[in-house]
C-alpha cells in the first residue's frame, strides 16, 4: 500500500499549500478540525505499520496452498483464479497508476475558488474519510482470511503462491481507497454547488470510472476475486459519500455531534452521537 500512502501524503501537502485562503463562504459542512484532522493523520500514519503487520499475518505456507481447491470457490469468482499469469505484472502497474489518479482527484477541487476558501475543512474531511476507511479495511482484512486468486492458479510455481500477503484477498483495499477518493470529490463538488438531477448522476458516474479500472486490473493481477472488488467499491463509496454527508447534516442540526473518545487502556476514537 506504499503507492496509496505516498499519493495521499502528496495530496495533503498540496492541499495545505494551496488551500490557505481565508474563508468567506458558508461551507455546507460543520467540521471539527481541532481534533478530527490530527486524529485522522495519526490513524493514517500508524497505518503504515498496520499494512506491514497485515502482510505478515496474511502469510500462506506451501502446505496451506496444497490444500486449496478451486472447486470450492463460488462459480461467480472462480474464473479469476485461472487468468493468465503473464499479464499479472502489467495489471499490477496499471492498478497502481489508476489508484494514484483516484487519490489525486480531489486536488481538482482547489480549482474552485468557492471550495478553495474552505480548503482546510475539505482536507480535514478527506483525511477523516481515509482514516475511517483504513480502520474498516483493517478490521475486515484481519478478521477474514481469504486466499488470493493467484494462489489457486495452476500457471504459477509454488514459491509464487506462498509467503506474505497471500491470504488478504477480502476485500480489495485498492478499490476501496480509490472509490473513497473519487466519490468524496464528487460529493463535495455537488454539495458546494448544489448540483442535482442528471448532472449529479453524471458526476458520480464519472467518479466510478477510476475505481472500476483499479478493480479490473486488481483481478487481472491475480490479487482479488470479483466479490472482493465489488465489496471494496461499496465500502469506499459509502465512506466517500457518508463522511461529508454526516458533517453536512451536523451543520443543519445540533442533535448530531462528533466527539473524540479516550479509554483507560489508551485506545482513541471518534464518537458520533445523535440526540432524539
TrEMBL record:
InterPro entries to which the protein is assigned, alphabetical: PAP2/HPO, PAP2/HPO_sf
Highest taxon above the source species: Bacteria
Span of domain Phosphatidic acid phosphatase type 2/haloperoxidase: 124-244
Protein name from the UniProt record: Phosphatase PAP2 family protein
Amino acid at each position: 500500500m506504499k503507492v496509496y500512502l505516498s499519493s495521499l501524503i502528496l495530496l495533503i501537502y498540496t492541499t495545505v499549500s494551496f488551500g490557505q485562503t481565508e474563508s468567506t463562504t458558508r461551507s455546507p459542512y460543520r467540521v471539527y478540525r481541532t481534533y478530527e484532522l490530527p486524529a485522522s493523520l495519526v490513524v493514517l500514519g500508524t497505518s503504515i505499520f498496520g499494512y506491514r503487520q497485515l502482510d505478515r499475518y496474511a502469510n500462506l505456507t506451501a502446505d496451506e496452498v496444497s490444500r486449496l481447491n478451486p472447486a470450492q470457490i463460488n462459480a461467480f469468482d472462480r474464473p479469476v483464479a485461472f487468468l493468465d499469469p503473464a499479464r499479472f505484472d502489467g495489471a499490477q502497474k496499471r492498478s497502481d497508476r489508476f489508484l494514484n489518479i483516484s487519490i489525486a482527484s480531489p486536488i481538482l477541487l482547489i480549482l474552485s475558488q468557492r471550495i478553495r476558501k474552505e480548503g482546510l475543512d475539505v482536507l480535514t474531511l478527506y483525511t477523516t474519510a481515509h482514516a475511517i476507511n483504513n480502520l474498516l479495511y483493517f478490521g475486515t482484512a484481519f478478521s477474514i482470511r481469504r486466499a488470493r486468486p493467484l494462489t489457486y492458479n495452476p500457471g504459477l510455481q509454488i514459491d509464487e503462491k506462498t509467503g506474505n500477503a497471500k491470504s488478504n484477498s477480502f476485500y480489495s483495499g485498492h478499490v476501496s481507497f480509490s472509490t473513497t477518493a473519487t466519490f468524496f470529490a464528487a460529493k463535495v463538488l455537488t454539495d458546494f454547488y448544489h448540483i442535482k438531477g442528471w448532472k449529479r448522476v453524471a458526476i458520480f458516474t464519472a467518479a466510478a470510472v477510476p475505481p472500476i479500472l483499479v478493480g479490473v486490473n486488481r483481478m487481472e493481477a491475480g490479487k482479488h476475486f470479483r466479490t472482493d472488488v465489488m465489496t471494496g467499491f461499496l465500502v469506499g463509496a459509502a465512506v466517500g459519500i457518508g463522511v461529508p454527508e454526516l458533517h453536512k447534516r451536523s451543520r443543519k442540526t445540533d442533535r448530531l455531534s462528533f466527539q473524540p473518545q479516550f479509554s483507560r487502556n489508551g485506545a482513541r476514537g471518534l464518537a458520533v452521537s445523535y440526540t432524539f
